[in-house]
Each structure stands twice: as structure tokens, then as C-alpha cells.
């Protein structure tokens, strides 16, 4: 007589499944192909892309893009229970 333990799921969920790994490998191969075939074209726009990214990095790096403003107002709320 065998011990009957509940079987664990043999199919993985998420990125550990065989389909996801195969898709990831195909995406990497496609990116490598695009990189190799179009490197000369991409190399010409790198300086412009860097210049265009600077304002975006400034805005979102300092959280001027709208993220986190609600939390700052709560922290800066005046405290009325002190002093009198």
C-alpha cells in the first residue's frame, strides 16, 4: 500500500511555466536580432534619446510627476495639540 500524499501541482504558475520560459527565450532572440541588424540606426539616435530623457528623469526622479504628493501633505499637516 502506498502513502497517498496530495500531489503538488506539476504545472508551474507564472514565469516558471514552460510556455513562459519559451516565450521569454523567443523575445530575447528577437531583441538580439533587432539589436544586431539595426545597431547603426540606433547608435545615431542615442545622444538625442539621452537629451530627451534628461527632463523626464528630472521630473519623475524628484517625484514631480504626481506620485507621492498626497503622502507629503499628510506629513506636513500642522499639529494643533502642541502648545497653548
Automatic annotation (TrEMBL):
Source taxon at top rank: Bacteria
Regions crossing the membrane: 20-36, 42-61
Residue ranges with Basic and acidic residues bias: 72-84
Keywords on record: Membrane, Transmembrane, Transmembrane helix
Classification via InterPro entries: DUF2933
Sequence segments annotated as region (Disordered): 64-84
One family name in Pfam for this protein: DUF2933
Protein name: DUF2933 domain-containing protein
Naturally occurring in which organism (per UniProt): Atopomonas hussainii
Amino acid at each position: 500500500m502506498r502513502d497517498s500524499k496530495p500531489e503538488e501541482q506539476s504545472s508551474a504558475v507564472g514565469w516558471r511555466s514552460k510556455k513562459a520560459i519559451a516565450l521569454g527565450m523567443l523575445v530575447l532572440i528577437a531583441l538580439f536580432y533587432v539589436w544586431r541588424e539595426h545597431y547603426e540606426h540606433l547608435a545615431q539616435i542615442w545622444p538625442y534619446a539621452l537629451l530627451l530623457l534628461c527632463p523626464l528623469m528630472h521630473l519623475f526622479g524628484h517625484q514631480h510627476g504626481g506620485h507621492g504628493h498626497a503622502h507629503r501633505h499628510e506629513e506636513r499637516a500642522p499639529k494643533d495639540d502642541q502648545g497653548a
